[in-house]
Amino acid sequence: MQTSQPRFATKLCGLLFFLPGLAAAQPVPIINAGFESNAIASGAFAVLTPQGWNRYDPSLIINNNANAVGVIRPDVPQTFFPTGAPEGAHAALVFLAGTQNAVAGLQQTLAATLQPDTRYRCSVQVGNIASGTSLPGSSDGGGVFYDLDGFPGYRIDLLAGTNVIASDNNSLGAQIPEGEWREARIHFDVTNAHPQLGLPLGIRLVNLKLPGTATVPNIEVDFDDARLSAGPIPVAAQLAITLAGSQPALTLTGTTGATYRIEHTAQLPATNWVTLTNLLLNAPARITADPQPATDPQRFYRSVLVD
Fold first, then answer.
1. pTM, full prediction
2. What pLDDT, on the 0 to 100 scale, is given for residue 13?
3. What is the 3-state secondary structure (H, E, C) of the chain?
4. What is the CATH number of domain 26-231?
5. Band of the pLDDT at 210, cuts 50, 70, 90?
6. Domain spanning 2-24+233-305: which CATH class is it, in words?
7. Where exactly are the structural domains of the chain?
8. How confident is the model at residue 79 (pLDDT cuts 50, 70, 90)?
């Protein structure tokens, strides 16, 4: 973490100048990452294994009835997801209404392999489907009411071969309202001594089937817009502060593709840093600030690596 300590105050005005930088993190291809390849009727759901994906069913509970995987298309007004899918028109579903106490989901082995000296970043939209009645075109024929209150929990695993190398184990489980989506994010670093170097990467989307009740049954998790990228492992940013007349500027240089937070405080040592901005660094950035008001106290600045 790099901290600079100028004796002037500033307010960011949001004007950024980008200077030449290193190559950004590159996307790692995921087949059918938005679950759009299986087109189904508008507003319906279909029990099927999404194209490009495989079932994850270690306890062999998926029977295409009480326990099933599939695709949902919530692109018309209905109660399941009133705002639709977060990306495209379709999303994946993992429905576990059976009595078995076991997890299941979807997984995919990617063409890319685990590389050394690399930071991987993964994001997936996770949905807490609300109760509702199926529409015509659905696998059940339509007109069936589903009590989907509650949330059975999710897990997102990143794999090298068959080895789990990073996970999000339901970190957002209590934060996703009924009928809404939230983005889960994972990042992890791979050194040149990682034991799984060269093995195929994989992604796994899991319904944890946390216990429910008669009134809150905890049945379904939905997933959409799975993304994975690979880039250099970020280093602490350099934050330089310059003053040309009364116009201060902050110049941030660091690792392309990393997110840094710029904070300030009025005194050191400080327990209350105030966030000025978060930057996804696509290149070294110069942030031009407002001129210093004569009444402002001194300010101290620092940059913090977020991911």
1. 0.79
2. 34
3. CEEECCECCCCEEEEEEECCCCCCCEECCCCCCCCCCCCCCCCCEEECCCCCCEEECCCCCCCCCCEEEEEECCCCCCCCCCCCCCCCCCEEEEEECCCCCCCEEEEEEEEEECCCCEEEEEEEEEEECCCEECCCCCCCCCCCEECCCCCCCEEEEEEECCEEEEEECCCCCCCCCCCEEEEEEEEEEECCCCCCCCCEEEEEEEECCCCCCCCCCCCEEEEEEEEEEEECCCCCCEEEEEEECCEEEEEEECCCCCEEEEEEECCCCCCCCEEEEEEECCCCEEEEECCCCCCCCCEEEEEEECC
4. 2.60.120.260
5. very high
6. mainly beta
7. 2-24+233-305, 26-231
8. confident
Pairwise CA distance, residues 96 & 220, whole Å: 6
What percentage of residues in the chain have a pLDDT greater than 90? 63
Calpha distance 291→9 (Å, rounded): 8
